[in-house]
Amino acid sequence: MTWQYRTVHCGEVSKEHIGQEVVLNGWVQKRRDLGGVIFIDFRDRTGIVQIVFNPEYNKTAWEIADKVRSEYVLAVKGTVVQRDPEAVNPKLKTGEVEVHVAEIEVLNDAKTPPFVIEDEIDVDEQVRLKYRYLDLRRPEMQRALLLRSKASKAFRDFLDSRGFVEVETPILTKSTPEGARDYLVPSRVHPGEFYALPQSPQLFKQLLMISGLERYYQIARCFRDEDLRADRQPEFTQVDIETSFLSMEELLPMMEQMVAHVFKETIGVDVPTPFPRLTYAEAMARYGSDKPDIRFGMELTDVSDLVANCNFKVFAGAVATGGQVKAINAKGCGHYSRKEADDLGKFAARYGAKGLAWMGFKDGEVKGPIAKFFSAEEIDALKQRLAAEEGDLLLFVADKPKVVADALGALRSKLGEELGLIDHSKFAFLWVVDFPLLEWDEEAQRYVALHHPFTRPKDEDLHLFETDPGQIRAQAYDMVLNGYELGGGSMRIYKRDVQEKMFKALGFSQEEARKQFGFLLDAFEYGTPPHGGIALGLDRLVMLLAGRNNLREVIAFPKTASASDLMTDAPGQVSPLQLAELNITTTVKEEDEQE
Amino acid sequence: MTWQYRTVHCGEVSKEHIGQEVVLNGWVQKRRDLGGVIFIDFRDRTGIVQIVFNPEYNKTAWEIADKVRSEYVLAVKGTVVQRDPEAVNPKLKTGEVEVHVAEIEVLNDAKTPPFVIEDEIDVDEQVRLKYRYLDLRRPEMQRALLLRSKASKAFRDFLDSRGFVEVETPILTKSTPEGARDYLVPSRVHPGEFYALPQSPQLFKQLLMISGLERYYQIARCFRDEDLRADRQPEFTQVDIETSFLSMEELLPMMEQMVAHVFKETIGVDVPTPFPRLTYAEAMARYGSDKPDIRFGMELTDVSDLVANCNFKVFAGAVATGGQVKAINAKGCGHYSRKEADDLGKFAARYGAKGLAWMGFKDGEVKGPIAKFFSAEEIDALKQRLAAEEGDLLLFVADKPKVVADALGALRSKLGEELGLIDHSKFAFLWVVDFPLLEWDEEAQRYVALHHPFTRPKDEDLHLFETDPGQIRAQAYDMVLNGYELGGGSMRIYKRDVQEKMFKALGFSQEEARKQFGFLLDAFEYGTPPHGGIALGLDRLVMLLAGRNNLREVIAFPKTASASDLMTDAPGQVSPLQLAELNITTTVKEEDEQE
C-alpha cells in the first residue's frame, strides 16, 4: 500500500477529473474483452466507473487485467478520459468518463460468488442470509445501511440540540415478571441466578428522571423472546426517550419535529406538522385499527340503527344482543362474483368474523344473498349512509365490536392495497391518543394495565377509579405511519396517591406491589418529577424510509423467523465445560440434539 | 402543568434576567428560615439558584414553602432580583441574583434521602450503588454522564465527517472457542443450543469490510464473563472501528486526530499530534510495561554488562544464566531506611522478583547490604550509567527479562506517583507498535496468537515463518494514555497464503482451521480487501477525561466486582417455568441457593 491508496471514489469520478491521474480501489463488477481491449465495471461503496485496459496504455497492466474475474479486489492508477459520444452510458452517474489504466495491483482474488452482486436479484433469502457478507455488497443493501446510519445521526443531532443526554443503560439486567418472555443469561458468579436482557430500558429511563437528568435518550438494543413474525426480530433497536417537567402537549410536538427532521435529512421529504390526532375510540370506530392507514378512506360505517329491525336475523340479532353491524364500501367492486365475495369472507374469517355479508350494485340491481331480506327503503338508507353508487360493493360484519373492527379493518387494508387506493409516495403520520388505561382480563377476572402499571391516567378521569375503572383514559400515545405503529409512550404516574389507586384497580395489595416492583417504588418516594416519554422502533422506521417491506432488509445481520443467524449458525452447541461453569445443564436428550 | 413549565434553568439565571418573571423547575437542595424569610437553594441539572419566600411577596407561597423539605420537587414562579452586595455568593454561578417567589406548586414530596445530594460525600459505595438514582443526582455524577454523552457525540461527529458508517451488529451471536469466557443465552426455539453475547464485534466488522462497506464504526456494547478487577465491568462499551484500503500509516494519524477532537470538544484540551511511537521491545526495555506512563522518566537501565563479573553472585549468576540485571534511579531517595527499602522489596516480590537489591548514596557513602560486593570502579560505572548523584537510590532486579520488566516497571509507577514526579494535568499519549505476532505457550507447547489469528505480520518479517516465528512482529498497535491502554487494533491478514502460514505456525491443520473459523474463512475467499481497525475503551477514556480513577464513576448503572447490580438486585432467581421453556435446569441444590 503505497501508490495504491485511492485518490477518488469510483462513483465520484466525473468530467471535472478529465486529464487527471487518479487511483481507485474496489471490486470488479464485470469484465468484458472487446477486440483485445478490456473494459471493467469497477465498483466501490459509492458506485461504478468504467476502467479500460489497452496494451497501448500499458502492456503489463493489460496482461494482469486479462486474468481478473468478478469480485477481484484491485487498486488501479490511470487517467480520466472523456468517453466517445457513442460510448456514453446515461444509466451510469459516471457514464461520460472512463479511466485508462496504466498501473494495476491485484489486492485479492475471488471465487465466483453464489449470486450476482447487483440489485433486484432473484435469489432465495436463505442463500442471501447465509452469504450475508456478499448480499451486503449489493448497492441496495449498501444504501439501506447508509440510510440507517444517517437516520441514527439525524435522531441524535436533533436530540442533542434539544438538551437530551445520551445514557447507556445495562444489557445484563433483571428479569421482570410482566411483559413478554425474557432472554436469560445464567450467572457464573451467582450460581442458580440469571440476568435478563432488557425488553426495553423503561425502568432505567424512569430512574434517570428520578435522578434529575431531565432529558434522556438512547438508541437502545432491546430483546424479546417471542415467536417471530415477518416484522419482528429477537433483538431490535429503539430510539428511547424520556423527559421530566414536560406534559404531553410539549412532548408530542417536539417528537413531531424530530421525526420531520429525520425524514428531511435522510430522504429529503417534508413531513407536515402538527400530526393529526385520533382518539383510540375514533380510530377503532372509523378504521377498525389502533394504527390506521389514513392514506385512503373506505372508513367503517355503523349501520346498526338501520338494520336493528330488518328481516335478516343475523344483523337484527347482533344488534339485539349488544353487538353491532358495520360496513365498508368497496367502490367499483359491484361486479365481484360470488366466488370473489366468498374469498373476502374467508379472509374476514381469519380475523374472527363468523360471516361476511355483501351487497353489490350492478346493472341497476342489488346483488348478493342477503338482498332479499331488505326492503327498498332499507337498501336506500344503507346506500345513502355509505355513499354507495351503482357499481359499488358493500361488505358487512355483524358481531361484537372487537370482531367487527378487526375483520373490517383488515378487509379495508387489503382492499385499499388491491384497489390501488394508496398513494405509496405519501407518508401519513398521526397520533392515536386516549388509550384505555385498563383492560378487563376475562381469564384472570381482573383489570390489567394496557400499557404498564405506571401509565398516568387523564386528570379528568381520575374520579372513575371509584366508579368505572374500565372507562379511564390514559395519557398514552402511539405514533402511527401508513398503518404501522412507529412507537408509543405515555406520561408516567409520579404521585403516590394515584399509584395506589392504580394498584388497587389492578387488584394488588401493598405487599404484592412491593414484591413485584420493589426498588422502583422506593425510588418514587425520593422526589420524583412529573415525567413521560416515548420509544420509536428504529428498524421499522428505517424500513419505511427505505421503502422496503421487511425488517431484514435494513438490518445488517438479521435473524430468521426461527431466531437463527444463517451466516454464523447461531445459536449453536457449547461445550459441557461452559455449562458446568454456569451451573446449568440442558434437559435435551442427546438424540434430540442431533435433529 | 400549565404555568409550571420552566422558562429558564436554575443554573442559568443571571443578571440579564433581573426584573424578569421566570418559572423554575427543580429540587430543594437546602431550606433555611432566617427571621421569617425562607431561603431555598433550588437545583436542577444545570446548577443551583437561591429562591426566596417572604410573606410580603406572597403569603400563600410562603406558607407552602414553610413545609417543603430537601429533595421536594417544585415549580416556582417569581421575579429575578439583584442580591444585596453583602448577600452575594461568589461560590455560586448564580450568586449575584435570587428569585423572589410569588407562586409555588409542590410537584412531589420526598423522604429524607440516605445521603446528602452533593459532591465529595463520604458514603460507602455499596450504599451509593443501591440508591444509584439518588447518587446520580449529585452534580459530579451528572457532570460525568453529560461528559460521556458529549464524548460519544464527538467520536460520532468525527467519524461521520470521515465517511464512516455506523452499523449495529448482533448482541445475540455465536460462542467462539478462543478468547475470554462468553456469557451464554439459552435458545428456547432451538433446544440445547445457546447464543453468546459478543466479546467484541471483531468478526462482524471484518465481514463488513468483505461487504465493501469500507469504513465502519459502532459504539458497541461488549461482554466478558471474567473475574472482575477494579477497572473491568462485565459489560463495557468500545468505540469500534474498521477500515479498508488503508495502511497503518493512514489509519493511525486519523485515530490521533479523532482522539484530539474528542479531547478538544469535551474538556477543551489540545492534544498534540502525531503521538510518539515506541516499539513493544523498547517500551518493555525502557519502562518495563507495554503501556508505559511517559509523563515522567526514571527509565529502566540495563547494567548487565557492568555487573556480569562482579562479586555479587546474584547479579553475576543472573547474567551468566541468560537473565539480566536492570536498575532504576529513585532520585533523592538515598535517605531511605533499610525498612523503607525492604518494603519496596516486598512490593517488587508481588511482581515475581525474588529480591530487590539497593544502593543508596548518602553522606558521601554507599549504603545498602550489596555495596560491599562492588569495587569503587564498578560503583562509579553504575552511578554514571544511571546518572546517580549524592542523595539518590538505585534499585536493582536480576532475573529473567519478563520478571525484571514487571517488577521494575511496577516500582517505577509506584515511585513516580509517590515522589510526585507525575504532572496530573498532562495527557501523554503514545502508540506502542511492533508487538510480537506469536507467543510461545509453555503448557500447550505451541505458538499462540498474541492478538488473534487474523493479525497481519509485518511484510518484512514474513520470511521468519520458516525460520523463527517467535521473532515475527505484527502490524498491531495499542493506544496508550498515562499508563492506561486506551485500546488497540491491527491490520488483518487478507491474503490466503499468509493466512495459511499463520495457521501452520499455530499448529492448525486445514481441517482444524475450518472447524474453528468456518464461515469466516469462506468469506475471505470472495474478494477480501486489505483492512484493519481499532477498538477504544469508551468507559476508560471517559474516566480519564473526567479525571476519575474508577470506571463505576462514569457508568450510569455499573456492576460490582461480583457482577451484581445492587439497585435492581440482578442477577436473580427466575421461575421454574422460565427455565423449563428454555430446556435447562440449574445444578445448584436448593440449600446452596439460600446462601
From TrEMBL, chains A, B:
It is found in: Cytoplasm. Residues 147-558 form the Aminoacyl-transfer RNA synthetases class-II family profile domain. This is Aspartate--tRNA ligase. Its main location: cytoplasm. It comes from Brevibacillus aydinogluensis. Residues 202-205 are annotated as: Aspartate. GO terms for biological process: aspartyl-tRNA aminoacylation. Belongs to the class-II aminoacyl-tRNA synthetase family. Type 1 subfamily. The gene is aspS. ATP binds at R224, D225, E226, Q233, E485, G537, L538, D539, R540. GO terms for molecular function: aspartate-tRNA ligase activity; ATP binding; catalytic activity, acting on a protein; nucleic acid binding; transferase activity. It catalyses: tRNA(Asp) + L-aspartate + ATP = L-aspartyl-tRNA(Asp) + AMP + diphosphate. The lineage of its organism: Bacteria, Bacillati, Bacillota, Bacilli, Bacillales. Homodimer.
